[in-house]
TrEMBL record:
Pfam families: HD_5 (PF13487). Residues 112-310 form the HD-GYP domain. It comes from Ammoniphilus oxalaticus. This is HD-GYP domain-containing protein. PROSITE patterns: HD_GYP.
Amino acid sequence: MRIVATDQCLPGTILAKPIYNSDGIKLIGAGTELTKAMIERLKLLGISIIYARDELSEGIEVVDAVPLKTRIEAMQVIRSVFSSIQESSRQGSKRFSSQVKVNDLTRVFENLITVIKDSNQTMSLLSEIHDKESHVFSHSINVTIYSIALGIRLGFNDGQIKEIGIGALLHDIGKMQIPSTILHKPGRLTNDEFFEIQKHPAFGFDLLKKQYEISYLSAHCAFQHHERWDGTGYPRGLKGKEIHPYARLMAVCDVYDAMTTQRVYRKALLPNESMNWIQSQSSILFEEKMVDAFRQTIAPFPIGLTVRLNTGETAIVSEPHPDAPDRPVVRIIKEPNGETLIQWREIDLNQYPELEIVETHSLI
């Protein structure tokens, strides 16, 4: 299978992996031959990529970084927590523990950390769950997965990883106090609307610091995840080590997931494109140590991505390299002149330092 952008998908394309909504309901099954109407529907749902089956990518398999059941359960818990907080806020309650079982959050965290520790590969979260109305919840889960993986790589202990994980699950909880007309606006925000959005870290911190079941440091993940290394962030304009390490870590994960996620007003960037931008902001917006560790944690070239080498040859990423995320195993499928090979061949880029990936695309 290989990754194909929906805006380049042609009728007759065979779907290699099913597509689900956030409730775990299958929207389209694997093996379906996509019609023009189906493709247009996928675009309306905000789905930027699919996994397609063809002869050139035969045998290339993508294993979900997080099992579908685990992700759906996490989505349901996060949605329940956020909804309960929104309701208790409307009622003027200072606490939400009566409506929400914090044990559910802990269970979600434990399920996610088990999956991450059991994985020996760099992370890639091109999910098969799609529901643009639930993007806040899906984003919270993705940021949690990235944050846990990054925290493990950086050597944080189990207690710290739990604080990071719970903080990441709840880092955007303040958005529940932002008017939905702004939060779900189908377009770019005005300056006044963005000013309202910038209030969500303080709203989130104010909610979480009152919950004795939640660590004060986890609450600070909500408060500080939009602060920036150079002091240009919000809400307080903290700079450098004034920002808690958890929030410095989460800032990278939060931005990366936002950049690789489709929005109404812009397309999702490919993982390597987002990674390159984050790298360009090392020691500017983000702490250098966090960026360097993140590059070793996340797969910039996910399995199934079509790439072009400096030789001009076209290839499909077929296997990640655990020790060199930017040097995967690739399957050469086209000559530099664009002619499709009768017999493809695979090479490990880590064994050929003269070869480089110079271009990526969802379909070349």
